Amino acid sequence: MKLKILLFLGTLPSLINSFFIGAATSSYQIEGHNSGINIWDEFTFEHNLHPVKNASNHFLQYEEDIKLLHEMGSKHYRFSISWSRIMPFYWNDIDPNAIQFYHNIIDECLSYNITPYITLYHWDLPHYLNTESINGWLDEEIVYYFKEYSILMFEEYSDKVKHWMTINEPLTTSRQGYGMDCSFAPYKCSLENQFLSAHYQLLAHAHVGYYYLNHYEGEIGLVMNTNWFEPKNEESIENSHLLMDENLGWFLEPLLTGMYPSTLEKYTQSFSFHEQIILMNSFTFLGINHYTSYYIDENKIISVDPNWITTKANWLFNVPFGAFKVFNYINERYTDTTPIYITECGMPQINKGLMDIERVNYLSGYLSEIMRTENKNIRGFFVWSLLDNFEWARGYNESFGIIDVDYENNYKRSPKLSYYWLQQLNKFILHEQ
User: Fold this and answer.
1) I need a labelling partner for 419 at 20 to 30 A (CA). Which of 104, 131, 235, 240 fits?
2) What per-residue confidence (pLDDT) applies to 4?
3) Residue 221 in 3-state DSSP?
């Protein structure tokens, strides 16, 4: 299918020599056929939500999926390893079949010259680490468990994998799983738990990242997520900065300075000198997930523009200028030298089907704005997501994939319009490079 690329051709060359477009997934959302139990299995059962079952059947169809990624022209694939697949029933009781499964995925990627980017933790904490004795991300011991699990993964795969991401969206885990926006597993919510779980996730990342950089050659980073909060007027600029502190700064400032933002001091505990050292020496890049934006006014009221294009997700609006603003903000306020990967960006279509013109419009707008940002350290863009998948508490009600999965017809894969659009865009980028 030939598609004309009506997209920022005048500004693209500013990043084109180092920029790529890949795709992202996470293990629990696509694999299926899980043998162990994790906190999301428990959560969906306890709250009578749709269970994951066999997700997108990637466990059996990974060869087809990676071939489709290759045919899209992508050379970069971000996916996660399931901790609860590697150790399904007990701590350190390792399933050799699980180890081999991820070898198979990595080898399949490499056979197509696709570079794997592996996330070590994407929310699927094993159930035996969410008990009265080991209380998940509220327990200091979780730092040890995560480090030991990560070392095992490095030992197993580091000869093939040189790009690692420790934890995906600690903000979401802390705020929605443990905090005041209580709607996710493990549903242990209080203001105290919100900040304690964030603290231990940061320390877990720090210990793992520091270990990796002192024992292996490659790159590693933490994946953070943030919306953009656009001030409605000059009087609301301070509130915009405050909300950015509560979203991005909460996790980014400890990496850069060893300290939390001063605006969060009354909620957070300080890091020791040793912890500060390992935090600031635990990463080589920043992973940023960005989806949408909001307005904030002088009274701290969040709103949206009624003219913004809506999506299937009630929290996600098509706001391209926010992508420009958020990456300029990082460049100006935090760092203008650290490499950045946009590790997730995408939207769920309102009407299910293959002609996802609204997703093409979304991606075109966001990529155009990203290309004209002053931040020249952006290395690549991973669209979320390669496949329609299990969308956590929303079950299968939101389709983020650029490839349709027919759950009623043997999980048949059908590329959407956005897939072919990205295929043509990848051809253009590779030609220019």
Assistant:
1) 104
2) 43
3) strand
Model pLDDT, residue 70? 98
Q: Are 155 and 99 in contact (CB under 8 A)?
A: no
Backbone angles phi, psi at 228, to 5 degrees: -105, 135
Ramachandran class of 385: left when φ > 0, alpha when ψ lies in -120 to 50, beta otherwise: beta
Tell me the pairing of strands 219-225 and 285-289: parallel
Model pLDDT, residue 266? 96
Place of tokens 């590790």: 343
To the query of whether residue 344 is one of the catalytic residues in this protein, the response is yes
Per the residue annotation, which of 253, 344, 358, 369 is the catalytic one? 344
CA 347 to chain centroid? 13
Class of residue 261 by CB neighbours under 10 A (exposed 0-12, middle 13-18, buried 19+): buried
Is residue 391 within 8 Å of residue 397, measured between CB atoms? yes
pLDDT above 50: residue 8: no
Give Cα separations from 48 to 126, 180, 312, 391 (angstroms): 20, 21, 22, 15
Beta strands 302-303; 293-296: pairing state:
antiparallel
> Any catalytic annotation for residue 42?
no
Are the CB atoms for 156 and 211 separated by under 8 Å? no
**Average pLDDT over every residue of 292-319:** 98
Tokens representing 401? 């994939």
SS3 percent helix, strand, coil of the chain, rounded to 5, is 45, 15, 40
CA distances from 381 to 51, 368, 400 (A): 30, 12, 15
Name the residue among 292, 290, 288, 289 with its Cα closest to residue 311: 292
Average of per-residue pLDDT across 286-303: 98
Active-site choice (31, 156, 169, 391)? 169
Indicate the pTM of the whole model: 0.96
Q: Tokens 């920022």 label which residue?
A: 8
**pLDDT tens digits, 362-387:** 999 999 999 999 888 999 999 999 99
Concatenated DSSP letters for 225-248? E--EEEESSGGGHHHHHHHHIIII
Task: Give yes or no for a contact between 216 and 158, defined as CB atoms under 8 angstroms apart.
Answer: yes
Counting Cβ atoms within 10 Å, is residue 272 exposed (0-12), middle (13-18) or buried (19+)? exposed
The span from the CA of 389 to the CA of 405, in Å, is 8
The answer to whether 318 and 365 are in contact (CB under 8 A) is yes
> 204-218, 257-271, 369-383, 393-407 — which is least confidently predicted?
369-383
